[in-house]
Structure formats: structure tokens, C-alpha cells
Amino acid sequence: MRRARTPIRRRLSLLAGTTVATRSFIVSLCLSLSACTLGQCSAPPPLEPAAFEALYAAPLPKPASALKVFHLGHSLVGRDMPAMLQQLAPDGHRYDSQLGWGTPLKAHWGPKDGINGFASENTHPRYRDAKEALASGAYDAFVMTEMVNLNDAIRSFDSRDYARRWARLAREGNPDIRVYLYETWHDLDIAGGWLDRLDGDLGTLWEGEILRRAIAPDDPKPIYLIPAGQVLARLVRDIESSGGFSGLTRREDLFSDRIHLNDIGAYVVALTHSAVLYQRSPVGLPHRLHRADGTPATAPGEDAARRMQEIVWEVVTSLPQTGVPQAAASGPAP
């Protein structure tokens, strides 16, 4: 009985009788197609490091007034953090959002039925369709974030391409809009270690695979960074190396489960957004806030709140990609 040809045998048979050059071309083509299946085929080259750094050499001008902000993301944005940000911001701060459950930027670009948890996450007065909102030109700042696991998002959901698309759409609506990428974090049990991943992912993934590839080399416009993951890493090291303060003794004290923040963690992330968006030290800002539904949020102790505020400002003013003037002295918020 004749043995059926496997796909590999069929491919090898195609090479029979060809020249060496032709066989080399076919092998190269097959390798290229294999790379395409891994999401690497159409990846644009990253912006050169020197060109990337040059985009952030000069800080953004400080906002002259309260901002209207649009948030795009998932449950690591949530409803409470933007509400806390509004309470920390100058009077007149406004915001809207479009959220999902673990939603990649690519899914937000498509039809709503492709956004997991869309109905549950957007049944609140702050929801607005993301494309409609940005096209309206009504916003001063646009904050987007990618799903985690970040490696999966980059490999399977074209993070770089959709970050570029969302930034372009925002600027078509308002050429002066400030565009930000909100750096988040992984599950506390992530392979490789939670702190180690935060240390490595900023340069390798958030910047190397998203920011440096999402910024068009032919028309480079900066996408700024809101480094919430870096702030949490610095805070956790501070807590765990010092024996803790004000009842906080370990990283889990900032979380409601293995990835979502509790009220105190959300407060830290809101402080980070406030410091970057408004370019002002958060030291001295209120620490007793309310959730989005109006109920009082669990507040950190006064000493803990001040240390959180100091850490936020130290981190934000050490990363030029935030758009904030660097090495600014920490002090009371103006």
C-alpha cells in the first residue's frame, strides 16, 4: 500500500529537481511565513534608541487648566481609579472611559461584541464609545493601556499596531491631545517573579515592543508613559524592606486578589496619573477619597499616604518618558 505523504514529505518533494538557489529561496520563504504566524512578519522596526530618547528630551508644558481625559483599557483601569484621579485633580477635571475584561487594544478597535465584559464594565455614566469620543476632539488627554499578560498581547494582538492606531485617531480628533500609555503589572504569581518582571518589562516590552514600534519613524510624535508598575514596584520594595508602615507589611496589602488593586492600591495609581498628567508633586494631596459609586474608599494612614506621594514623585521625575520635568524637588503640590 502506498504510504500517504505527510505535509513535510509533500514540501520536501516540491524541492526535488530544483536548483540550489531555488531551494534556498523556498526555505527562506517558509521561514518568513513561519515568522508571520508568530506575529513578527509585519512588525515595524523600532525607533532607534537615540531618536526615541530625543522625543522626550524636553518636557511637556504644564497644563494651564483642568483636563478632560479619556481612559481606554480594562479592569486595571476600572471605575474607581479614574474617580479618585478626579478628586486629586484641579477643579474642572472631567473624564470618560471604555473598558472591558482583560481587553487588548485590538479588541477595543473592533465591534463591541468582541470586548469581553463590555456590558458589565460600561454600565455607568462615564462610558462613551472610544472611537466617537476621540474623533470628537473634546479631550485634552488620552490614556490607553494594553492587556496582560503583556507578552501574549504583543505576540497575538498586535499591540504596537493598535497603539499607533489609537494614537493616530486621538490626534486626528485633536492635534494637540496628549497621548499616554499606562504601564500596568502582571499577576503576583507571574513566572519569573513579579518585581523582576516589572524591572525588565518596562524597557523590553512597554518601550521596546510597544512605544518604540508604535511611534511612526516618518512622523515621530511621543506617546508618554504613566509608570504605575514602576511606582508599585518601588513602593513594594520600600514596604517589604523596611518592615512596613501604617499597617502595610507586604505587597498583598495593596491588592484585592492576585492582580486587581484594592482601594489603597488604586489610590497609588491615581496619584501616579495625577502627577504625570498635571506635572505637579502629589505630596500634600488628599488621601481620604471616594469610590466611583460615592462610598468612602479605604484610606491609607496619613504617614503611609505621604510616603506613597513621595515615591510617586521620585519615580515620575526619574523617567523622561513621562513628559514631566526631571529631578524636580519634591514638595507640596501647588
Describe the structure.
The protein folds into two domains: 9-37, no CATH class; 49-322, SGNH hydrolase (Rossmann fold), CATH 3.40.50. Helix content is 44%, strand content 7%. The chain is built from 13 helices and five strands. The protein has helices at residues 7-15, 20-37, 49-55, 80-88, 105-109, 118-121, 130-135, 150-156, 159-173, 194-214, 228-242, 263-278, 302-316, and strands spanning 68-72, 94-98, 141-144, 178-183, 224-227. It has a five-stranded parallel beta sheet, with helices on both faces. The longest helix has 21 residues, at 194-214. The radius of gyration is 23 Å and the shape is globular. The termini are far apart.
Task: Summarize the SSE layout with pairings.
Elements: H1 7-15, H2 20-37, H3 49-55, E1 68-72, H4 80-88, E2 94-98, H5 105-109, H6 118-121, H7 130-135, E3 141-144, H8 150-156, H9 159-173, E4 178-183, H10 194-214, E5 224-227, H11 228-242, H12 263-278, H13 302-316
Helix pairs in contact: 4-12, 9-10, 11-13, 12-13
Feature tags:
2 domains, Rossmann fold, 5-stranded parallel sheet, 334 residues, alpha/beta
CATH topology of the largest domain: Rossmann fold
Number of strands: 5
CATH architecture label name of the largest domain: 3-Layer(aba) Sandwich
CATH homology superfamily of the largest domain: SGNH hydrolase
Biggest pleated sheet: 5 strands, parallel
Run of helices and strands: HHHEHEHHHEHHEHEHHH
Query: Hey, roughly how much beta strand do the residues contain?
Result: 5-15%
